[in-house]
Structure formats: C-alpha cells, structure tokens
C-alpha cells in the first residue's frame, strides 16, 4: 500500500510542476511534509518493534503501529479523493458515516419497535444528507438557475429538525411505549453525530474561500484549494488527538473525569491544545488563514476534538464496552477514529463559512 | 441459479456485517450438524455464506417443506441453496423427519438445523426440540457443532421485510456428541447451554 501511495504522489507532483496556479502547490507541500512524517513514524514503529529491549511497553508500541497504519489508510483515501475529485471524496465520507452509524446503533440497545425508524435513518436520511452536500454551487446553478448558492439552507437543518421530528413519530406508530424517550434520543444522537456532524467535513468543499481581506483564495474553478483546507482540518484534528495523548503520557497527573476516561488529564489537555495551536499556526501558509487566525482555528479544533472524545468515551462507559472495535470481534472501530473529527467539523465549517468565505 | 446464490450470499453478508469466529473448532469437510439459535430469516443464509467456499456445496440448511414449497420464489430459493425440505405434515413411523434427514445427508452432506423449531423473539434461546438428540443417537459419528448468531434478529426481525444493516457476530463452537447413557432431556439441555455459552466468549 505504501509503494502505491508513493507512486501516486510522485506522478501527481510531477504533473503539478508546470501548473501556473501558485497557491494550489501549497497543498502539495503540506501533503509532502505529512507523508515524510508518516514515513519517519512508520520506520520508528518498525524499529521499536524489532528491538523491544530498548523501548517502553510492547502494548504501547502495538497501539502506535496501529495508529500509523490507520493514518496510512487515511492518507491513501485522501490521495484517491484528491485524484478522483470532489464527488469521490463526498462518497467516501458518506461511507464512513454509514459505517460509524452502524457501529453506534449496534452498540445501543434498540427494540423491535425501532426497526422501521432505523430503516429510514439508514437508507433515507443518511444518503439524503450527502446527496444535498454533493450539489456544488455550479450544479445548483445549473439545476435551479440561482447562482452562488448550494443546499446549505437544507442540509444544515434536514437532520436536526426534520429527522429529529420524524424518528419519534415513526417509533410512536410502532405501539411500544417502553423507554420511548430514551430510544428516540439514542437514534437521534447517532444520526446527529455520525452523519450530520461528520458531513460538515466534506461540506468544506462547497465554500467559496476568501481571505479576511476579501480576496478570493485559490482557483475558484478547481476543488483543490478546498480539498487542501479539508486536509489541513483533518491533519489538525489528528495532531490534536496524538499530542494530547503524548502530553498525558509524559506529564499527566490530574485526571479530568476518571469514570469517563482514565487517560485524559488536565496536563494532557493543556499541553495538547497548546502544541496543536502552535503546529497548526505554523501551517498557515497552506490555508486562507493568517498566522494568528490559523492559531485560533487550530485551538478551537483541538478543544472540540477533545470534547468529542470525551462524549464518545462517556457513551462507551455507559454501555460497558472498551472500544467500538472490540464490540464485534475483528472489526476495527471506525467510530473510535472519527469521534474528535465529528465534533470539530461543524465548528470549523461555520467559522470558515462566516469569516473566510463569500456567503451569497 | 448460478447468479442467485453468490448474489444473495454476498448481499446477506454485506447487510449483516457478519464477523465469523471459529472458537475451538476449525472448518472441516467431515459430516457435521450445525445447530443454531433461530431469530431471523437471514440466519441460515448468513451462516451458510459464512462457511468457507469449499464447504458451502457440502452444507445444506434444513427447512420445513410446508413453508418453503409455497410460491415460485420460495421454491426457487430452496432449490438454489440445495435446501433439504422436510415434510412435517406426513410423519409416519419410518418417515420421521430425522430418518429423512439421515437418508438425505448420506455420507456426504453436513446440515444446518435450528432446533428451537421456529424463529423466536431473539432475547432468549428457546427450548430445543428432540430432533437433534435422535440425530446424535442414530449417527454417533456426526459432529454436532453449536453456533450462536448474535444481532441478526435486529437486522431482520420476525415479520419484517426491510433489513437494517447493523453488525452481527456468528460464533461457531467446539463440537459435542451424545454421551453414553445421557438422557434426552440432559443432552438437549447441554446442547442449548453450548449455544448460549458462545454468546459470552
């Protein structure tokens, strides 16, 4: 997989050398840096595994290597998304949402009476959300003759308003009052977190990006500048995760909420958010943000990501499972990987929408 | 027929997100009776599809003839999957379901049976009917393999047509045999326990 990723990137970098749009190359630089870091991390992980006597804890190394593998996979998915365009990226996110929702609902006990409501949730609302997002401003103009807009007005409310109203209605029809409110709430939050929140990440591709000075950022006819911003966002979320983990390991003393998550400490949160802010700010050149703006964005993303992990931990503790991955043997938990992403995406999207894009 | 089987098997696996766990048991071409809890129409299909490719033609689900002989679609499905249809209405002395099963399976086929008799609501495993005991008694060489199917009742519960694609888990446990001098009730109790225990492994 590694070789394949590399050859793609090399072909692709050589294609861009005679490109006369300078701002787009930023993304390739960013991608190059990330790939470089991943290679280093991969080699380090292999070495630690080969010479166990010099290193810390085999379980930790295994965890580290697993994370690196997941990142390679994410990277490969991203490269595929970049190369094959906007719709592919949206479809990929749609699939991730679908799988995460599957894990979420599998873990939550539902009753026979919820079956029909669940069917609508899986096969109507989830695809609908992504179909609405897949209309770019151009396609919207083609279909409805109204330029410069997308379906934001609809996809920002279709789940939190209409699906939230529909779910208890459908459950009520099934004539089973037992734990009614609880069951409705579980399905609603699953749909909200796994589908609605996550869908704001690919929705970044629909924005018409501007700097705060009001100048257009990137080539408006290409989806690459927006894809670059999406990549930056996911990178910052992942950095936030890993840096908080490292800080907790190195300096963690005071656990925030031991019953929810025994490994999250105040020191880890503080150190993690600060270092994510610094690293995210230093990557400002790949975004429409200025240095201090990138710092603020990274800080918000890191804090929301932390919130997301805590909420998902709380749900897991309530259900008495350690990881979504161990819930059903052999499945790697998608939900474990995207919890922070889900919580950070809507906030990042809206901040970008209001301050760094032209809203029509 | 050539299209129906791989298509339906693939679809069932995709919808049920089934993970297969072989616990103290390995796939083998020897003659076996897989007995499982029954909660959904998908049970037999998913279990059959979860077996390795080379075992599939050798393994036949057992089903009631009066149900599967009704209508062309059911008949076609039963034929495609080489289902062993047992007539429950015409039971005679030398024509009991167990006799028929043993005759049909010969020295070649393995069976998939659901000893609870019908599909239950899914929360509890029901009491087992005696067929499994007589199979074990008349053919002591058969490996009786317990199988626990989890969450399939949520994927496609009884009385529903449209599935919800949750994740399910199929656990296949160590084979049991009828012990010398073991009574029918004791054996059926032990068999049911073997299925239930797989839930917690």
What would you say this structure looks like, in words?
The complex is a heterodimer of chains A (360) and B (201). With 360 residues, chain A is mainly alpha-helical. Helix content of chain A is 73%, strand content 2%. Chain A contains 14 helices and two strands; from the N terminus they run ααααααααααββαααα. Chain A has helices at residues 2-16, 25-50, 58-84, 86-107, 115-134, 137-144, 152-155, 158-173, 180-203, 224-251, 266-282, 291-319, 324-327, 334-356; strands at residues 255-257, 261-265. Chain A has a two-stranded antiparallel ribbon with strand order 1-2. Chain A is globular, with a radius of gyration of 21 Å. By secondary structure, chain B is of the alpha/beta class. Chain B has a single domain (4-200), classed as 3-Layer(aba) Sandwich (Glycerol-3-phosphate (1)-acyltransferase). A seven-stranded mixed sheet of chain B has the order 1-7-6-2-5-3-4, with helices on both faces. Chain B is globular and about 45 Å long. In chain B, helix 1 packs across helix 2 (42-50) and helix 5 (97-105) packs across helix 6. Classes of the chains: A mainly alpha (360), B alpha/beta (201). Chains A and B meet through helix 4 and helix 5 of A and loops of B.
Short synopsis of the structure:
By secondary structure, chain A is mainly α. Helix content of chain A is 73%, strand content 2%. The longest helix of chain A has 29 residues.
Helix tally of chain A equals 14
According to CATH, the fold-level topology of chain B is Glycerol-3-phosphate (1)-acyltransferase
- Helical percent range of chain A? over 70%
What is the general shape of chain B?
Answer: globular
Number of E-type strands of chain B:
7
The CATH architecture assignment of chain B turns out to be 3-Layer(aba) Sandwich
Q: Estimate what percentage of residues of chain B fall within beta strands.
A: 15-25%
Read across the widest sheet of chain A, the strand sequence of neighbours is 1-2
Largest sheet of chain A: 2 strands, antiparallel
């Amino acid at each position: 997989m590694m070789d394949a990723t590399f050859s793609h990137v090399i072909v692709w970098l050589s294609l861009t050398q005679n490109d006369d749009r300078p701002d787009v190359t930023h993304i390739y630089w960013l991608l190059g840096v990330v790939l470089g870091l991943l290679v280093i991390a991969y080699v380090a992980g292999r070495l630690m595994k080969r010479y166990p006597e010099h290193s810390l804890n085999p379980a930790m190394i295994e965890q580290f290597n697993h994370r690196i593998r997941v990142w390679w996979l994410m990277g490969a998915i991203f490269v595929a998304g970049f190369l094959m365009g906007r719709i592919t990226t949206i479809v990929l996110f749609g699939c991730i949402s679908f799988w995460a929702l599957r894990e979420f609902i599998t873990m939550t006990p539902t009753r026979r009476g919820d079956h029909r409501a669940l069917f609508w949730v899986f096969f109507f609302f989830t695809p609908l959300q992504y179909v609405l997002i897949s209309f770019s401003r151009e396609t919207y103009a083609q279909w409805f003759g109204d330029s410069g807009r997308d379906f934001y007005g609809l996809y920002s409310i279709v789940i939190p308003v209409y699906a939230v109203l529909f779910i208890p209605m459908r459950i009520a029809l099934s004539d089973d009052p037992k734990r009614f409110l609880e069951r409705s709430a579980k399905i609603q939050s699953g749909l909200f977190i796994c589908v609605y929140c996550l869908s704001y990440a690919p929705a970044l591709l629909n924005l018409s990006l501007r700097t705060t000075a009001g100048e257009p950022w990137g080539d408006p006819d290409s989806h690459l500048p927006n894809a670059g911003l999406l990549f930056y966002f996911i990178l910052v979320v992942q950095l936030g995760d890993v840096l908080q983990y490292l800080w907790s390991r190195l300096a963690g003393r005071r656990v925030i909420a031991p019953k929810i998550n025994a490994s999250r400490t105040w020191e880890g949160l503080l150190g993690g958010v600060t270092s994510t802010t610094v690293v995210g700010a230093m990557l400002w050149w790949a975004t429409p943000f200025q240095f201090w703006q990138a710092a603020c964005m990274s800080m918000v993303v890191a804090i929301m990501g932390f919130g997301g992990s805590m909420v998902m931990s709380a749900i897991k503790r309530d259900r008495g499972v350690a990881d979504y991955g161990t819930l059903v043997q052999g499945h790697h938990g998608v939900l474990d990987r995207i919890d922070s992403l889900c919580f950070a995406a809507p906030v990042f999207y809206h901040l970008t929408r209001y301050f760094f894009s032209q809203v029509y | 027929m050539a299209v129906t089987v791989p298509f339906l098997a693939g679809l069932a696996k995709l919808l049920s997100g089934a993970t297969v766990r072989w616990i103290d048991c390995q796939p083998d071409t020897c003659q076996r009776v897989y007995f499982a809890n029954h909660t959904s129409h998908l049970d037999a299909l998913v279990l059959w599809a979860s077996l390795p490719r080379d075992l599939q033609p050798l393994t036949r689900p057992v089903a009631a003839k009066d149900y599967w002989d009704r209508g062309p679609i059911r008949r076609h499905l039963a034929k495609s999957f080489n289902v062993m249809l047992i007539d429950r209405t015409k039971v005679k002395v030398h024509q009991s379901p167990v006799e028929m099963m043993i005759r049909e399976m010969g020295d070649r086929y393995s069976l998939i049976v659901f000893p609870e008799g019908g599909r239950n609501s899914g929360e509890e495993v029901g009491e087992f009917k005696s067929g499994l005991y007589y199979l074990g008694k008349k053919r002591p060489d058969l490996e009786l393999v317990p199988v626990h199917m989890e969450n399939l009742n949520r994927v496609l519960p009884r009385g529903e047509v449209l599935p919800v694609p949750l994740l399910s888990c199929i656990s296949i446990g160590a084979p049991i045999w009828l012990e010398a001098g073991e009574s029918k009730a004791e054996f059926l109790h032990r068999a049911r326990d073997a299925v239930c225990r797989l839930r917690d492994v």
